[in-house]
Amino acid sequence: MLLGKFKRPGFGKALMVFSVAFIAEAFVYPSVRDAELWYSRPEKTLTYVRDVLKESRTGLGSLEELKLADVIFFESVSHKMDPLFVLALIKTESTFYNWSRSGNGAVGLMQIRPATGEELAEELDLKWKGEETLLNPYLNVKMGVHYFSNLMERYDDDAEVTLAAYNVGPGIVTSRHKLDEGWGQEFVGRVLNNYNDFKERAEYY
């Protein structure tokens, strides 16, 4: 079953609606939102995501990795994003290690700070248990993709500014001018390089 527990009635129809929206928006954000590259091959995309997790040091069991792949795929599609881009973001933030912690307090796969996580949990109607919630890989990805999607809307789908804001915070990165001054540029470059690497490795891209 393609999405395991995340398969829902009418999900195929919803995917078709998403694909039309993606194609309509492709000229705005061609790399991250271009569904033509992967939507027609969802099973291959999901298999690819599973393979990436399997070859990585996630700190999770094999069954947990399979479920995590489903979550990454489902959340990406739900937010009109290429799953391989989400993989690139996770790799840059945590190298896929679920128990990652940064020096500034960010936790989990997508390196979410507790204060931000609490706000996201409230938005998504999730029960907040502090770091325990952020160390749940499925909830961490759900919150992280949701947060990144919100930032994309805030910054008019500008990939570089959105990535910088995700990394150092929207309070610091408020415009393209600040990004040009160096805020978050190294992080942006690493994510985009990882994204290109994943696309090159995927035979169907």
What report would you give on this structure?
The protein is an all-alpha fold and 205 residues long. It has one domain (37-201): Lysozyme, CATH 1.10.530.10. It is 59% helix and 0% strand. It has 10 helices and no strands. Helix 2 (42-54) packs across helix 3, helix 4 (83-94) packs across helix 10 (185-201) and helix 7 packs across helix 8. The longest helix is centred in the C-terminal third of the chain and has 18 residues, at 137-154. Residues 1-30 have low confidence and may be disordered.
Structural class by SSE content: mainly alpha
**Strand portion:** under 5%
Low-confidence stretches: 1-30
Please work out how many helical segments DSSP would assign.
10
The helix/strand order is HHHHHHHHHH
Q: Which labels suit this protein?
A:
mainly alpha, 205 residues, 10 helices, 59% helix, disordered N terminus, 0% strand
